[in-house]
Specification:
GO terms for molecular function: alpha,alpha-trehalose-phosphate synthase (UDP-forming) activity. By secondary structure, this protein is α/β, with parallel strands linked by helices. It contains 18 helices and 17 strands. The chain has 2 domains: 227 residues, 3-Layer(aba) Sandwich (Rossmann fold); 210 residues, Glycogen Phosphorylase B (Rossmann fold, 3-Layer(aba) Sandwich), CATH 3.40.50.2000. It binds adenosine-5'-diphosphate (ADP) and 6-O-phosphono-beta-D-fructofuranose.
Amino acid sequence: MGTDAGDGYEFVVVANRLPVDEVTDGDGPHRWERSPGGLVSALQPVVRQMRGAWVGWTGSAGEAPDPFDIDGMHLRPVPLSAEDVDLYYEGQSNATIWPLFHDLVEQPTHRRDWRRAYEAVNRRFARAAAEVAAPNATVWVHDYQLLLVPAMLRELRPDVRIGFFLHIPFPPVELFMQLPRRRELLQGLLGADLVGFQGALAAQNFLRLTRLLLELGPKDDRVEVDGRTVVARAFPISIDVAEVDQLAADPAVQQRARQLRTELGGDRRLLLGVDRLDYTKGIEQRLEAHHDLLADGEISNDDVVLVQVATPSRQRIAQYQQLRERVERAVGRTNGEFGDVGRAPVHYLFQSFGRAELVALYLAADVMLVTPLRDGMNLVAKEFVAARRDEQGALVLSEFTGAAAELDDAFLINAHDTDDIKRGILEALNAESRDLTARMHQMREQIRAYDIDYWARDFLEVLGVSGAHEAEQAETAQP
Ligand code: ADP
Ligand code: F6P
């Protein structure tokens, strides 16, 4: 599937964010940095391989830069004004849909002006995609910020094939029913030819809603709408296993992992958390379990250290600001109660890291803590497994992540129950090396078989872009 920039692109991804964020330090020149989150980690290798175009926002309010090419991708920035950021991104996307789709972990707010902005911005994204797509192109729309785009795009460009993939959970019917203008949201998604979800239950919820709210007659994994067939199915997303594997094999990364361990206190066992600072990730519950283990004397500051990396995220939203305050208070409390001079039980890093440093952390860890209260998939869990070529290290994993369905050899826990998180951590710390190897071996087999390439090929083949991926791979392989 090659591209012809003159007539547009044959493969177009549309997502709220571009894979890079525009960063300006003071008056200095601007630069581009990889943008946060699992969506970008997963999709970047696919778009690069397909030499496609990516329609999205730069992460900064104001005018959008002109389209440009980077890293084998054509990027088409969509402008968001400060008001759009406020109402569409921070409001309707992240303070209404995000909490509601994550089982009301926080209370959603419903506002008419947010919904209006959401619709207007979705239309802008649809127009940009319509401009960039070649005749009969494949356009793949992503995530909860753009639920209305498939129908809007179909209106503008009935010739293109439209796929949609939801990276986060799709809520149970009773929760979806709470959304104002819920029919429009469903109709928006039904503009696609294929709607993909992280799990089978999500696809079923969606199809049931088409019956309940739109009186359609879904059958098996499909539903007829206006003489078209829309398929809804699960496609659990994965990671670029080869990229992580390559970094994990790099002697410099391995050296950095050894250095991290030495700096953290030689033979202390290392517990690790790596997340966006988001209330869905169960960071507070994890910190509480760790605190209680220290308080109960089950672990001690001499033997165990916790490193929690938290990427700054959505920092202007009140619920995220409050979360940050609570997390930082909890870290301070544990360090105050159980720390020694020069030796803290928790190292909290409110920072973003490069890929190599993240992989060094994964290699250095004895126990990886992935404890979301709800998560569509969780790529960090899969990255940790991909990094552990030594088949050592334990994964404590919340049952409420999509990843738990595939990585069931992890130490599975109920993240809503602090005692169960404590149990999982202790089991992981006390497990025999043979047991860890057996578990890690199984999990590595799983992610190697279903990596990001498999995921994309699977989705695109069902969408009817059969053979395109292989053709592209062959093309890429040529000198
Ligand atoms: P989400 O999509 O909700 O952010 P995921 O776990 O699915 O959660 O994906 C997170 C992605 O962001 C992973 O690829 C992970 O490596 C990356 N990431 C998480 N924390 C950091 C960090 N502190 N620095 C750099 N990348 C990070
Ligand atoms: O994967 C979920 C997701 O919300 C993506 O859609 C998003 O790009 C990423 O996490 C990071 O969030 P944000 O773009 O709001 O920083």
